[in-house]
Write a structure and sequence with these properties.
13 helices, 3 domains, elongated, alpha+beta, six-stranded antiparallel beta barrel, eight-stranded antiparallel beta sheet
Length: 550
């Protein structure tokens, strides 16, 4: 039996290998590489760089079909050459010869499961990084070949000549360099900007231009430094500029962390903790910023309404004592009526005092996420802002100002300590009550809906990946059985018939994935995916039991 299984398995592997080579070459040349070749500015070197990234993806996708073809052809030939009849005459159970097909299906399932969930996502990220880091080279080739480059139907740029720039020269000018920041030196560039209707909105020319491509963020950021430039803007006068920075212009590139580009481990983590996903993180951070602003305003209004004093500090050690007759709200911001602010620090004999009929508290976040506060003292009617300067000769005689801003103040520590308890997990947990109202309640409900949608999408994708890998177990065995039944010249018909359950299972998995992404049908979607595999397995047993004589 070992000799027989080895013989059948050897024939299967030979046919399986040839089928993979043929299908991989067909899909790679006719699909992946064709789309790459059609992209503007692609060189032969780019094709050679992309090919190793495309091959594993194509092999994983074509392997189940190749295995199905191999089992149908090999078992059909065994039946046509009466080799299975000889096995039966020798007292060998023909059903046991299907062990080789089972081993092949297990290998294909394991390979597809491993590569589809762990290796291919990494290659997809590499393809994305390759495209992003080669944006400059693509623009260079397109400018040299066509003389122009464009983004959508809004931004156009032409060039008389383009050149590379040495990184050492750029660093000497104080410009950042690196693998993700690259440059092009452009001679006689022209820039054209159109509006949404296709009309010219802005036109500029220059003697020289240095174009910077920054791919560190999700959005491609393009900045152009021009010299001896003329800027023509519709409806305005033209301007001559010796040296100007144009941009940066953010160009939307594919998001590098789509669920389809993630490995199984990351998908399961996102499903269990959706606040860790790349899509949810910025939205939750923005919500927490709004929540911090809301809590700071509420804390200030409560303390001032009770006649207490608010004490704020800045990063220089200055202390600001704020009092007000009463506190109202202008939209979301607290407005202090008849406000008084005393600014001082230890060791100062007298504080600087400000008085205003109206003062507005403004809280916002710096780009690094650090919250800061601004006190804006404003003139109200004929009452200006009064400043009592301790360094003036007459401290009791104020200076009048129309408005005054005291900024870069820090949020009180008691508010920051309260905000630490509002974690991203708490924001997405309906069982955790947050001190919010109005728009923040609506924003939180939208976050819940987005998190639930992400979880459904991830769950459907996981079921689809596992189901696609598991489909080889049932479809390949059916191909072997049909090859025995449709022997001889009808082997191709057997392969075509075997493709029917394979295609049906694939369609059911796609349908199940789509249903699984919608609210209310997620359980139905998963059931459809696995029911299709179960029915195919039952059909395998029926065909082998009643269609293939032992």
């Amino acid at each position: 039996m070992i000799t027989l299984h080895a013989y059948v398995l050897r024939e299967l592997l030979k046919t399986f290998g040839l089928a993979i080579l043929a299908l991989t070459a067909l899909f790679t040349m006719g699909g992946g590489l064709y789309n790459v070749v059609r992209s503007p500015g692609v060189t032969a070197a780019s094709l050679l760089s992309v090919l190793p990234l495309l091959l594993p993806i194509v092999i994983t996708l074509t392997m189940p079909v190749s295995a199905l073809f191999a089992t149908t052809m090999v078992y059909g030939r065994l039946a046509a050459d009466n080799e299975l009849l000889a096995c039966r005459a020798a007292g060998v159970n023909v059903h046991r010869t299907f062990l080789s097909a089972v081993l092949l299906s297990v290998f294909v399932t394991a390979f597809t499961l491993l590569f589809g969930n762990f290796v291919i996502p990494d290659f997809m990220k590499r393809l994305d990084r390759f495209a992003r880091t080669n944006i400059r080279d693509i623009a260079l080739q397109q400018l040299r070949a066509q003389g122009h480059v464009r983004y959508g139907n809004r931004y156009f740029m032409t060039a008389e000549r383009v050149e590379d720039v040495d990184d050492a020269a750029l660093r000497a000018k104080g410009l950042p360099t690196g693998r993700e920041i690259r440059y092009l030196l452009i001679a006689s560039p022209t820039f054209l900007q159109l509006d949404g209707n296709g009309e010219v909105e802005r036109f500029a020319t220059a003697r020289w231009g240095l174009c910077q491509f920054d791919t560190r963020a999700v959005m491609l950021r393009v900045t152009v430094y021009v010299s001896d430039a003329w800027d023509y803007e519709i409806g305005k006068q033209s301007a001559h500029i010796d040296l100007q920075k144009v941009g940066p212009v953010d160009i939307d590139l594919p998001m590098p962390l789509k669920p389809s580009m993630l490995d199984l481990k990351t998908l399961l983590r996102w499903h269990a903790a959706p606040w860790e996903s790349a899509k949810m993180q910025p939205r939750i951070e923005e919500f927490l910023v709004q929540l911090g602003r809301h809590r700071f305003y509420a804390d200030c209004a409560q303390r001032l309404g009770q006649g207490e004093t608010i004490t704020l500090e800045d990063d220089q050690g200055w202390s600001y004592r704020v009092e007000a007759e009463r506190c109202t709200f202008d939209g979301k911001r607290p407005v202090l009526v008849n406000a008084q602010v005393e600014m001082g620090r230890p060791g100062q004999p007298r504080p600087t005092r400000y008085e205003a009929a109206r003062a507005v508290l403004i809280a916002r976040a710096l780009p690094d996420g650090q919250p800061i506060v601004e006190i804006r003292l404003e003139k109200s009617g004929d009452r200006p802002v009064l400043e009592y300067n301790p360094r003036a000769d007459d401290y009791d005689t104020p200076r009048e100002k129309p408005t005054l801003s005291l900024d870069r103040l820090q949020v009180p520590q008691r508010v920051l300590d309260e905000l630490k308890s509002y974690t991203p997990a708490a924001v997405l947990d309906p069982q955790v009550a947050l001190p919010i109202d109005g728009e923040l309640v609506d924003a939180r409900v939208k976050l819940w809906a987005s998190a639930a949608k992400l979880q459904r999408k991830v769950a459907a994708l996981v079921h689809f990946r596992l189901g696609y890998a598991g489909s080889a177990l049932v479809t390949i065995l059916m191909g072997a059985a049909l090859g025995v039944i449709f022997r001889g010249a009808r082997m191709l018909a057997a392969f075509g018939l075997a493709c029917v359950p394979f295609g049906s299972v694939t369609i059911l998995m796609v349908m199940g994935r789509q249903l699984g992404e919608h609210e209310g049908t997620e359980a139905v979607g998963a059931a459809i995916i696995w029911a299709g595999l179960l029915l195919t397995a039952v059909a395998d047993g029926f065909i082998i039991r009643f269609g293939v004589r032992r």
